[in-house]
Design brief:
The complex is a heterodimer of chains A (106) and B (196). Chain A is α+β, with helices and mostly antiparallel strands and 106 residues long. Chain A has a 3-stranded antiparallel beta sheet, with helices on one face. Classes of the chains: A alpha+beta (106), B mainly alpha (196). At the A-B interface, helix 1, strand 4 and strand 5 of A face helix 1, helix 2, helix 3, helix 5 and helix 6 of B.
């Protein structure tokens, strides 16, 4: 759909899918062509605004996720620090208590 | 599309990063005697570390609740529900570490609720859902669920460790807010051995 230059003139064509083929239809009246063109532009702008809003919303959710992940990682670090300070150590991802050099599984 | 984070979000993220960096700097994960001494020193010298971590977690919770596309009443209800959940999870024996982990459970719960709400709205909408959009929300929901599981398991694990139970494998520790008595612990060990 849009303005096309054919044989030295500028014409407005509307594209329509008919089955497996795309059919071009010439819009004879200039007024109708201009109206259709402005209408088409409006639709495109609306779609772009909608797409931008969705992208912005997704970015907001991703930023919130990133913030939460940062807080979780901080808590994880603090937990590990506290457990080490209390005399625990990690062996194959499980925590064990270390007593005077002797390992005791807890 | 990358957007500039909001001031509140940025403040929470920056404080969390600063705390994490301070802990990472002293490298305690090898748990040698020196590392244990370094860990104790850091915790003694930074008495406000716990307070700072609570503030970060509370700040994140406020940001999540405020970000909800809901009425003021719904937000207020979420705030009350978070308080109730915190009180429910808290026991008399809990120290600062458990309190921090309870905060994480509540934060993960709010995040899960928020994403679950949108997931339902997206998939039950009349206009349908594109593959890309569906995948985005599916991924978010899975991540939120995983974080919630991790937070509850971390709390259960720390409780088991600090109450000195004799469960052999803490990775299978089940969340149980009840105080662990020796009878319960022995029963848990027997049950675990039977499963193996």
């Amino acid at each position: 759909m849009g303005w096309e230059t054919r044989k030295g003139g500028c014409y407005y064509y509307v594209k329509e899918r008919v089955g497996s083929r795309v059919v071009s239809q010439y819009v004879r009246s200039l007024e109708t062509a201009l109206l259709l063109d402005s209408f088409r532009k409006e639709i495109r702008e609306e779609r772009e605004i909608e797409r931008a809003a969705k992208a912005a919303y997704r970015a907001e959710v991703e930023a919130l996720d990133a913030m939460s992940d940062e807080v979780f990682e901080m808590a994880q670090s603090l937990t590990n620090l506290a457990l080490v300070a209390l005399g625990f150590h990690q062996h194959k991802r499980s925590w064990r208590k270390m007593r005077d050099g002797d390992e005791t599984k807890t | 599309m990358a957007t500039k984070p909001k001031p509140k979000e940025k403040a929470v993220t920056d404080r969390a990063k600063a705390l994490k960096a301070a802990i990472a700097e002293i490298e305690v994960m090898d748990a040698t005697l020196e590392a244990r001494a370094r860990a104790r020193k850091l915790m003694t010298e930074n008495g406000d570390m716990w307070r700072a971590s609570y503030e970060v977690a509370d700040g994140a919770l406020v940001v999540w609740i405020e970000a909800m596309q809901a009425t003021g009443l719904t937000k207020e209800l979420y705030t009350l529900e978070c308080k109730r959940l915190k009180q429910e999870l808290l026991t008399d024996k809990d120290g600062p570490l458990e309190k921090l982990l309870i905060g994480q459970v509540v934060l993960a719960w709010v995040r899960l609720m928020y994403i679950d709400q949108f997931y339902t709205a997206v998939f039950s909408g009349k206009e349908g859902v594109t593959f890309e959009r569906g995948l985005f929300w599916e991924k978010r929901l899975t991540m939120a669920q995983k974080r919630f599981d991790q937070a509850t398991v971390a709390l259960a694990r720390v409780r088991r460790l600090l109450q000195g139970s004799k469960v052999k494998n803490l990775n299978v520790a089940v969340f149980n807010p009840l105080p662990v008595s020796s009878a319960n612990t022995d029963a848990a060990v027997r049950a675990y051995d039977r499963r193996r």
